[in-house]
Amino acid sequence: MIPHLEPEAPNTIKFLKYLVSVLLSREPLKTGKTILIPINEHSPNFPEFTDNILEGDQEPKIEDVLEDKARLALDKIPQIRNYLLEKFKHHTVVRFLMFKEADPFTCDIPFIILDPKGLYKMGENLGLRPQTVLISNQKSRYITSRLKKNPLRICVSDKEIPITGGTIQSRIVELMFKRPLNTLIELDELVDDVFGDGITNPSEKWKSVNNALYLVNKKVKEDIGEAMFKVGKVRYSRIK
To answer: Which residue pairs, CB below 8 angstroms and at least 24 apart, start in 186-190?
Structure first.
């Protein structure tokens, strides 16, 4: 008996959500990026199949059962791929599944990202928690950037970068997040806000602000691979 993938079964829908959530977790998503996702029929994230290798008028021999398991495993591969091709459509390329073993059925699914924006929309339609926001510029990037307090931390997608409270870094971060994305802020304005009007040794204060921005950028870049702030000689902006 050829196994049949049940596209509307709860387990199959859970399987689809699992694949999309794994893809979205591999930020930054860029066209052409290849992501390999392993699946195993003993895991909770496996599609539902209707099959019964014991079906028939006669009780099968044990060697026939083992042979049928291998055949049934191979029969599942094109059905899984056809299902994914239909679901992901133009968002990804689903390459041929890489079969590893029959019992339990195990394989790797290679995805190539084509349309990150469509993939995020697909996640929203499946009820997954939005992880990104589209920022339009010359190269479309998908990010969420927000500031949370108690304790203070920068949140980008599902990552959180802690910022020590009561420091120059924390004050600058709070100031930068009060401004819209890509809004230029003068160095003098940051120094005034951080240190107040009665500034002595202004060059030291400028150096402190520059150093704080550098350290925050370094922390963020270590987690997400990109900087949080654009730093110029006398102007700054938040780009995430």
So the answer is: 186/234, 186/235, 187/233, 187/234, 187/235, 187/236, 188/234, 190/236
Sorted by where each starts, the structural domains of the chain and their CATH numbers stand as: 4-125 (no CATH), 144-238 (1.10.10.10)
Q: Is 122 helix (H, G, I), strand (E, B) or coil?
A: helix
Answer yes or no: is pLDDT of 89 > 90: no
Cα–Cα distance between 68 and 72 in angstroms, integer? Answer: 6
CA gap 206, 215 in Å, rounded: 14
Q: For the whole model, what pTM was predicted?
A: 0.51
The pLDDT of residue 142: 43
Read off the pLDDT band of 129 (50, 70, 90).
low
**Of the candidates 140, 113, 121, which has an alpha carbon nearest to the alpha carbon of residue 32?**
113
Q: Please name every residue paired with 186 in a beta bridge, in sequence order, or none if there are none.
A: 235
Look at the block and give the residue holding tokens 């029929």: 41
Residue 158's CB is within 10 A of a number of other CB atoms, namely 13
